[in-house]
UniProtKB/TrEMBL annotation, chain B:
This is ABC transporter permease. Residues 117-327 form the ABC transmembrane type-1 domain. It is a multi-pass membrane protein. CDD domains: TM_PBP2. Belongs to the binding-protein-dependent transport system permease family. Pfam families: BPD_transp_1, BPD_transp_1_N. InterPro entries: BPD_transp_1_N, MetI-like, MetI-like_sf. Gene3D superfamilies: MetI-like. The lineage of its organism: Bacteria, Bacillati, Actinomycetota, Actinomycetes, Kitasatosporales.
Amino acid sequence: MSEVSKEQTVGTPAAAALGEPVPAQRSGTEDTFLSVRDLRIHFRTDDGLVKSVDGVSFDVKAGETLGIVGESGSGKSVTSLGVMGLHHAAPNARISGEVWLDGEELIGADPEHVRQLRGQKMAMIFQDPLSAMHPYYTVGAQIVEAYRVHNKVTRKVARARAIEMLDRVGIPEPGKRVDSYPHEFSGGMRQRAMIAMALVNNPQLLIADEPTTALDVTVQAQILDLIRDLQKEFGSAVIMITHDLGVVAEMADKLLVMYGGRCIERGTAEQVFYEPRHPYTWGLLGSMPRIDRDQTERLIPVKGSPPSLINVPDGCAFNPRCPYADIPKDNITRTTRPELTETGSGFGSGHFSACHMSQEERTRIWTEEIAPKL
Amino acid sequence: MAAYFIRRVFGAVLLLLVVSAVTFAIFFLVPRMAGQTMDQLAAQYVGKDANPDTVAAVKKNLGLDQPLYAQYWDFIRQIFVGADYKFGPDVQHCDAPCFGYSFKRHIEVWPEIVSRIPVTFSLAIGAAVIWLISGIATGVVSALKRGSFLDRFFMSVALAGVSLPIFFTGMLALGVLTVQWPIWSDGINYVPFTESPLDWAWNLLVPWCSLAFLYSALYARLTRAGMLETMSEDYIRTARAKGLKESRVVGKHGLRAALTPIVTIFGMDFGLLLGGAVITETVFSFQGMGKYAIKSVQDNDLPIVMGVTLTAAFFIVFCNLLVDLVYAAIDPRVRYS
């Protein structure tokens, strides 16, 4: 184990830079498994600096599920890659901020040490299991490999473990299917195998990057159930990255809404779903299809398109698309960046949002204009 | 897997038959369409002192008086069972595999080809080993250090390698290494492996490198492109997410996928070279298949041209068959489609 050369005491992340409020769960740091502070991941490209993640903070406790929601290109996947230390794959990536995993800071840590944690303490499952598994190796061989990187065991022991994991994730005849290739599996089976591979070392943090996007709806529910069961069984912290609010509603304890590489709203699932305080979150909720609504009613899309991460608007990133941008605000110019501030909420503390409109104004718009239409 | 194997072998045999028919047609049918009579063809074999009687005899002996399909049948048959050629009272027996008889040089074609195979094979195999190692290694390094000085340097050299023809690099190497700085002071001559393995390798070193330079340049570029593509695949990210060492990510997960297209191209290139590296053999005056083919074309010695062409075609088809089988071993998805 290499020593982390950081002055902060283990387990107490430094107060976040740039005045961003420290997330509410700070009091409960002893059971906070992952703590991310002011994470920034920028990529230098020929066209300019791409600010994929620009100051994101959050906490996840053991046994808890955090949902990260946002449009494509909002920086949710890059955030997770940054936590895993996988941004190194891009030579033009620059990262700053702090990632505390179980009391250890990872961004300043030796990459070799982070590599040893990867797959062992923190694991990840990806969107499309067909392209995420190597087509030339059997499913078993790939699980065996994942197990043997972190455990000094013989091939035979690892293979038995692989079969055990395949059985655990609900693959029939695991003793036979262990020698199958990924292309011989159905989509749902592949994702199960992918989960088996991620969980083979009992990781305490599981990051699921759009785990059900590439699957049939019927299979989606099975996979989500599986993740939830395994989470209960192993007590792991889970980060569920998705653009599907239905998935988050089912899974997440806490929510983080990202827009243009920034966190624009954060709170418990109840807070964000029942008392959202950001126009973008309103837009997301309004664009979600609902089974209990009349089908003749049109969904309300969020107007415009997501910002280019090279030219994120100076002030509020959502400003160009915001239907309330013209409402006069005190002492605010277009270049002032809204900070995450705590929102008074009927669901307890810990609800933050970043909007220039006053609390009263937003509460009024939500209760009078938005909520009745949803 | 067995069905796949049988299908491929069957296809290869069929392909060889087609190649032989086309070759036969080019050498016998096309001249005839252009107005050449069988008498004129037979006269070629007789030489300068041709009188009508000998021409007629040769025509009969060679079966040139028979219809073309019968001639083709004889040509194929003699490969498997041999043939007899009559010269007045003498009978020359040509053992199977008999690829015909050169009446210009009064020799059987097949033993001539066989005697040239070691030269060509030595050249091709040695060069292939060199270009595979150097080409793939530089390609991988270039891809991993994309945009670095090393990458630019390798790719510039590779561009030169692809652009410079072998009759330039080969001649240059020959001139510099035997005359300017006479490291090979006695010149470069082929020494059979069975005679002295050391001299064999020493004399082949320059031709190997000349030939390999051209190909390794090509392979370096191919490997680099393949690696760049593979390393951005999702399964590479998965391999990293498992916590594998980067060397293992590159070697086991990246390279294996990136090398698949290289195997295909290598099969074709290597098969082609086994049929004779025409220019390299000519530059270094090696009596290989390529040089032999050129000479027989110049001499208008049809049986030899046919024999060399078919042999070369056989190697290409054979290597491609091997590639198909190796491919199935590498990529499990091929086996079932």
